[in-house]
Amino acid sequence: MVIAPHDADIHYALGKRIESGQVEWAKRGFEDTDLTNLGRVEIDHVVDAVFVTLGGKDSLNTRTHISALCRRMRIPVNVLDSPNLCTFSLPATHSDGPLQIGITTSGKGCKLATRIRREVASLLPPSFGSAIERLGTIRRRIWEEDHRSQALEDSTILAENEDDDIPAQKPTFNQLISESDREAAKTR
Questions:
Q1: Which of 30, 88, 178, 188 is deepest in the core (most CB within 10 A)?
Q2: What is the distance in angstroms between the CA of the first residue and the CA of the last residue of the chain?
């Protein structure tokens, strides 16, 4: 839900979401009752979080008022360019499959956090997320093999000499590494 006057400058991406019906736009100013009327039914219509994007010195009183209301009602609030009015901040993020990187300056320099995120992301090899995905697959296969053979191993250990406290490595361990995995390791 976006609350802004009908003549407000709406960001292009947000405008597209409004046009597609993903986001509703209440074309008016903020009202205190919005915090307790516009939320989900499951939580008695109290909003989950509030993002205040009003700018300029003229809006300082409004931003401070909304922040105070949210804090009193324990509603998370983020106020643009006013870290002292926020109860949380959002990091600049980079995502590549399972890889998630977040950079924050705790509201002290949002553009700097974005620049640092770009710098960090540029240092990563292409398709790094795919490599992490493959690593996860190998780890899962090892875990499954360990647990699948655990019952067999437990029964074998009990049947063997009980003086041997340390079981040997399973002979199936090396079978989890395929020829393509070996070739990929050589090129790293």
A1: 30
A2: 48
H-run or E-run covering 157: helix 128-159
Active site residue 44: no
Helix (H) or strand (E) holding 179: helix 179-186
pLDDT of 130 above 90: yes
Q: Give 180's pLDDT tier (boundaries 50, 70, 90).
A: confident
pLDDT of residue 99: 95
Chain centre distance of CA 100? 7
Contacts of 174 (CB under 8 A, 6+ apart): none
Residue length of the chain: 188
How many Cβ atoms are within 10 Å of 129's Cβ, its own excluded? 15
The two three-digit tokens of residue 185, written as one number: 């390791």
Single out the catalytic residue among 44, 48, 81, 96.
81
What pLDDT does 183 receive? 73
Average pLDDT, the chain: 85
Give the span between the Cα atoms of 188 and 96, in whole angstroms: 19
3-state SS assignment for residue 93: strand
Q: How many CB atoms within 10 Å of residue 66?
A: 22
pTM score: 0.63
Three-class SS of 103-130: ECCCCCCHHHHHHHHHHHHHHCCCCHHH
DSSP secondary structure string for all residues of 38-62: SS-GGGTT--S-EEE---SGGGHHH
Cα separation, 106 vs 86, in Å, equals 10
